[in-house]
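Hello again,

I reread your note about wanting to compare the complex against the isolated chains. To keep things tidy I'm splitting this into two emails, and this first one only covers the full assembly. Below are the input lines as submitted, including protein chains and any nucleic acid or small-molecule components. They are followed by the predicted structure of everything together. The single-chain runs will come separately.
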Amino acid sequence: MEDVAAHAGVALKTVSRVVNAEPGVTPGTAERVRAAIEELGFRRNDSARILRKGQTASIGLVLEDIGDPFYSALARAVEDVARAHGHLLFTGSSDENPAREQEITLAFCARRVDGLLLVPASEDHTYLQPEIEAGLATVFVDRPARLIEADTVLTDNVGGARDGVAHLIRAGHRRIGFIGDAPQIYTSAQRHRGYTEAMAAAGLAVDSSWVTQSAPTLEGVQASLRQMLAASATAVLCGNNRISVTALRALASIGRPDLAFVGFDDFELADMLTPRVTVVAQDVASLGRTAAELLFRRLDGDRRPAERIEIPTRLIPRGSGEMPPPA
Amino acid sequence: MEDVAAHAGVALKTVSRVVNAEPGVTPGTAERVRAAIEELGFRRNDSARILRKGQTASIGLVLEDIGDPFYSALARAVEDVARAHGHLLFTGSSDENPAREQEITLAFCARRVDGLLLVPASEDHTYLQPEIEAGLATVFVDRPARLIEADTVLTDNVGGARDGVAHLIRAGHRRIGFIGDAPQIYTSAQRHRGYTEAMAAAGLAVDSSWVTQSAPTLEGVQASLRQMLAASATAVLCGNNRISVTALRALASIGRPDLAFVGFDDFELADMLTPRVTVVAQDVASLGRTAAELLFRRLDGDRRPAERIEIPTRLIPRGSGEMPPPA
DNA sequence: TTGAAAGCGCTACCAG
DNA sequence: CTGGTAGCGCTTTCAA
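Full-complex prediction:
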């Protein structure tokens, strides 16, 4: 910038004014400065600007795995909002590992991101308390904060699971199973709760051998399905799309593609399988957009108490969830 | 940092030494400093550090759409390498729009990222020349740079398409079509070239009504398939996974799921459809990892001339590509 | 309308 | 082993 000033025969401050389109520069002077900028290939160093202004115009997004289509769709929605607000986006994948969540989060904090969007993996977010008190805007997405108060945007997991089960009940099923991920995962526990509530609301008993909650492996899901079928279940709700896909493979491999089936979370080609797969769809884009917009409202000075927003789900009947139980 | 120094009764510089684990501090002093850091909840401000060191320990990744599974898998591979090198990752989606590519890229440059990974959308990268000369390490991924010399990591598009067509020829097909994306897209043009070469190598004529190259819409792909079938084609190579999926839907809707079919690029559930879909799989993770590793080699001082690396593809036979032509 | 000087928070360099 | 000082490149403040 000093070089540009020398080249244009003006003071450094004048160059700054031109670069930032501040008022108070004669058109002629401005033109001379612009020419010097062009000639020297000057680009403002935002590092210095950031240091001086105390604002980085960037936000950080911590999620489980940017390579997972669910989270990448979330990231895309966040990016669009960030761009609309003139902010850049850092992303980091925690792999469901609390230590990595913290490592990435603190690295973002050290860079003084203006705001943080967090799909949490850890059970304790008190480590963020000092940052938040120091003014870091933070919004939790998809799962709530633990041990601190914070803005949160969630899917209506309980309601969605309830809808899925109610849908199977309407098709005539009474013996309905549930395969979910590990119960330590918030969304997994909530969806299990929705399943239980829907069964209770319909006055239906739940056989414990109809229910599994653990990390999805093909073998595990196969075993769960076998056990469930042995106990005469006629339908199943799967707790997330990875489980749905695994269960579909397992059903094909054990020769029972006829089990009535509802999956939580939509996935590409669900409508092209045989049978076409009925799902409870989450609105991932809305989840990301809503969270990012809330974040920017905070950055714009909104000081109201922490909010908790739930995004509704939508049941998409395609065939697999409408098959009646065998007579 | 000054506060911490005052609190611990030492000089600012000593605090800096402790924070950066530099040698030359008595354990006792270091302990006192650490206590002060803890008490004040101090976190180093990396903005200042960056300004001083001239190194941001961050890289930027510009791609078409972070929400697309292909690119999100790429991003994940890049993130892992970046993390291993202690760098943070900025991501930005260009949406295949040259102006946005440039806008995002220059924003990353203004932040003085140490390196740039680019899936280019534009036809002219001379705007990057000054940055590269100023020391910015840049690697192009999936598509080559235009009008400048630069490191590039590509998929072997020509070879992959050739393999896919040769596979159909081995199954007995002689009348093979190609549906690709717009020919302006580098990968699209290359795959078309592979198709043409394989047909020529086998001494087979290509009927112009077997070939379409345009942005994939359901209607467009449907029309292409109808035209191709009317001209007695018995097999088709699809130029990317979006086209494959669209074509599968189209074939289902026009009642011809029997056309022999090979898709370029693998996709989730390809093995669960009816028939199971044969693909030419790209190794996206390797693409991202290789590009990122090349970038960090440059950052570590490798000054050899620009490299061009091609990642091989792998044909995965699953059924749709092994169906013989009707007798 | 323009410019000079101070300083953001840190690290590099040289003294003690 | 410890401390002081200069300065990274910009914006802020105040003066001309």
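For quick reference: The domain at 55-154+284-309 of chain A is CATH 3.40.50.2300 (Rossmann fold).

B.
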